[in-house]
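for the writeup, i need someone to sanity check this before i put it in the appendix. the sequnce is what the collaborator sent (i think, or maybe the updated version? ugh). structure was predicted straight from it, no edits. if anything looks off just tell me and ill rerun, i have time this weekend
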Amino acid sequence: MSAIADVAKLLEQIPIWKRLKGMPAEIEGLQARVAALEALVKTRPAAETCPLCNSGSLKVTSVKPHPIFGDVGGLQERTMKCDNSGIVPEPVENGAAGAVG
């Protein structure tokens, strides 16, 4: 037997080698799942709906500390814009659990 065949035979006896051989197929499967999930996320409407057109396409355009409380308690002020109607509703407070938002 050649040296390469001997090395290949020895590698087949190592448990981690068997797992490493299966990695490319596993990685391809995971890449396909991620691509499918990313496509699904793109089709979902935003969590916030536009008060004018109700399209559900409000997107956050900026986030800054709360104007009164600053960084205390994790409160933030989000500015949003509708991709459909183009309106910019009043900033929304968002932050720590239980906060008014």
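The chain has a mean pLDDT of 79. Residues 35 and 41 are 10 Å apart (CA to CA).
thx in advance!!
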